[in-house]
Amino acid sequence: MYEDTFTFYGAARAEADIGSPKLQEILQSSIKCNSCDDLKAEFIFHTTYHQLKIEEHYKTLCENMNSKHAQAGTTNDSTEDETVEFGRLFYLSIPPSAYSKTAELIDKYCRPQAPTWFRIIIEKPFGHDKKSSVELAEQLVKYFKDEEMFRIDHYLGKSIAKQILPFRFHNTKNYDHIWNRDHIEKIEIMMKEEVDVKGRVNFYDECGVIRDVMQNHLTELLVLVTMELPKNINNITEIQQRKLQLLQQVSPVKPKQVLLGQYASYQSELIASAASEHVASKTPTFAASLVNIDNARWKGVPILLVAGKKLHERASYIKITFKRQIVCFEDGDSWDNTKCSPYQQMLFNIGGGSIGIPAIVISQSLPYPTAVAEWTNSQQVDYFKQPGNSFNAFTAKTDIDAYSSLISEVYKNNKQYFVGTDQLLASWDIWTPLLNDLHNIPLQEYSGWDEDTDILKFQHAKNQLKFFTEKHKRFEATEIPSSNSDMQSIPATFRGRKLIVSPKSELIEKLADHILDIASRSIDSKGNFHLALSGGSSPIELMQHMAEHAQDFPWHKTHIWLVDERCLPLTQEHSNFYSIHTHLIKHIEIPYFNIHPMPVELNNGLCISNDNGNAMYEKTLNKETDGILDYILLGVGQDGHTASLFPNQPSLEMDDKGVALTQGGSNETSVNRMSLTFNTINNAKHVSVLIVGGHKHDILHKISNTDNQKLFPITGVSPDDGTMAWFVDTDAYLNH
Ligand SMILES: O=C1O[C@H](COP(=O)(O)O)[C@@H](O)[C@H](O)[C@H]1O
Question: Which Pfam families does this chain map to (predicted)?
Fold first, then answer.
């Protein structure tokens, strides 16, 4: 019976005449249980609404609590032998900015006297990065003791999540010897959702998928499957220490280990619900992260965390794939599945997916588990559908909703299922560096639901993730140019490729950061970086910026190539090499043999076709890079030329060449040129086009909507497998 033992208070900032009926409506519609109408009615009867906006409201509410409490104390009819426990529990589901004041007022007016216990449940977000989370923890600790606080992550209350540790613990003999890098090929932790973010888009836009579910729910699941087992499964302190130890061994996630996506209608949902400054949001609604644990058990095992909204199904699970160490000789039909199944997997199904219910599914080729308490071997589950894949599946006898389960743990004062302060901060250590760098990671646009499942398929190799196909449209949401611009919004793409628009100096910084980012990824994956630079005036400021920040760039592993060259001596001021040397090369420490000027000057002649300088350059390029440059920086002339590929020139159709002799431009700077052709340009891993200055506005406008490559050669640039970005300054974009 609730009567005289429980009282429930619902509270919010709204006045009682709005909040009270709203609370009634919520209670009536959302409390669902079987044959419990009386209990539901009793619960609702004992629940009242209170406005909590100003200090006075807290005072009134808590006086009310105190008097109820006093009444309960005098009227309870327990015998002297019975000890009646009193407690006061607060559940705060409020924005982080409201925590400090709320905590202060609860502490001031609502803290009961001993022996009545006092506990506080806190809902995420617990900050938005390491720093803010430390600040929040510091504010809370002024008012509440650590043992009074229960940070709730409802994934820890899911029935499967609660079973993972006991399951591992009671199966130590069966699985612990294969629970490691020698036997496990990979671990996948998925949280796919069909829902979009409508209705909470403003909240969501501040956090995105990594803060919303990856730093907390998925990281918690990761810990449960990979932490060292405690010696005593009932020793909560030991369990919490083991969790912390694991979190401290997870390496911070790097940008190259992450793929991001945003569903296509996200931007319009945002615009419909918010102020215009929210357009062009870069908030990801999908993320895949490759996580590494730097310890003896897990080093080198790829652990994939994937989460997204508006996907084709709702499914949360942890899948562990074991390495296949048995070679089977039997015919397919006569496989003895218990020994020779081609599949060795273990799945903790949290919910949804083809199984639908929480379940533990284990290939029969793995040892049969023992002691799965309260769980039964179930025929209900139809999971590994491939022939030859038999399995044992265990489902829970009862499945209690995660929040109810956790709240009852708070009553029991059981801290095991809650997030400790140290664990929280360690988890932010894993994700914060990435979150600071998120704006540099391109977003893959996906349609959502069933329409486009292929576009999010990805692969992992060499500690890096890549979308399976990058041919689909990718975009990076643009920056809004600074304050007094007359633009309301700028599209995220230009000619189907990502567009970055900023005032010139910011733009140059962004471009330099982008080059550095790609250089670092390239050096991480293959040990070098091949960069091709254009001549002309546009890149001068970029080169000066790079020279000034030379110490930040891995020049010793970088090769510099020329996009094009004028047929002039390299010491002549109009030579592109001369300019690149003057503004960059002479200021940096780069190995001499990593500099590749174009051989325009051979045998005392300039670009004599019999000298085959272009073929020589192509040969060196092929030898050093297989014809695939890592990064090409292009510009655009007012006539639409790029590199030294000029309108209506035969060089535009040189299908068989990677480097060509071309013609164009003015006499003053030589009409004879050497240039990379479209073959080489479109073979590159990344191409950026830099367009600066109001005088480039017209050409930008012209090429926005044409594919006439003969007339506007720049429109022929579209890397086959690589990425491309347009870096445009606000003067060129807005015609200033
Ligand atoms: O905490 C959150 O979780 C829900 C998903 O929870 P589930 O129990 O339905 O799997 C998610 O939709 C929401 O964005 C996130 O804040």
Answer: G6PD_C, G6PD_N, Glucosamine_iso
Give the residue whose CA is nearest to atom 16 of ligand 1.
Answer: 212
The three-state (H, E, C) secondary structure of 540-590, written as one string:
HHHHHHHHHCHHHCCHHHEEEEECEEECCCCCCCCCHHHHHHHHCHHHCCC
CB neighbour class for 533 (10 Å; exposed up to 12, middle 13-18, buried from 19): buried
Q: Which atom of ligand 1 lies nearest, measured to the CA of 352?
A: 10
Distances (CA, A) of 307 to 89, 195, 219, 346, 578: 32, 12, 12, 20, 50
Average pLDDT over residues 264-293: 82
Ligand 1 atom at minimal distance to the Cα of residue 351: 10
Could you give the residue numbers annotated as active site? 217
Each residue's pLDDT tens digit, 545-575 = 999 988 889 999 999 999 999 998 888 888 9
Cβ atoms of 444 and 476 within 8 Å: the answer is no
**Crossing angle of the two packed helices 421-437 and 236-249, in degrees rounded to 10:** 20
Q: Which of 630, 659, 625 is nearest to 645 (CA)?
A: 659
Look up residue 381 and give its two tokens. Answer: 């589950």
Atom of ligand 1 nearest to the CA of 212: 16
pLDDT for res 545: 95
CA–centroid distance, 60 to ligand 1, in Å, is 34
List pLDDT tens digits, range 507-556.
Answer: 999 999 999 989 998 998 899 999 999 988 889 999 999 999 888 899 99
Residues with CB under 6 A from ligand 1: 154, 193, 195, 212-213, 316
Whether the per-residue pLDDT at 645 is higher than 80: the answer is yes
Query: What is the pTM (predicted TM-score) of this model?
Result: 0.65
| Residue of 571, 616, 562, 551 lying closest to 594 (CA atoms) | 562
Q: List the one residue out of 151, 220, 166, 146 whose CA is nearest residue 189.
A: 220
pLDDT digits (tens, 9 = 90+) for 329-379: 554 444 444 555 666 889 999 998 888 888 898 888 888 888 665 667 766
